Amino acid sequence: MEFLNWLNPNDVVGLEAGSQSFRIAKSILNKGIQVIVLNPGDLATIYQSLKNR
């Protein structure tokens, strides 16, 4: 995965949960980068709560 070369140890990556998300997350974690896998059903709620601040 070419994008792994662009990531730095201080980066945090958010992925929408899907069929390949956990495989991708594992590759990113192996580089020592923090990964958060997000439930797509909750993304609209999270976005709205941040937008209303």
Automatic annotation (TrEMBL):
Protein's name according to its UniProt entry: Transposase domain protein
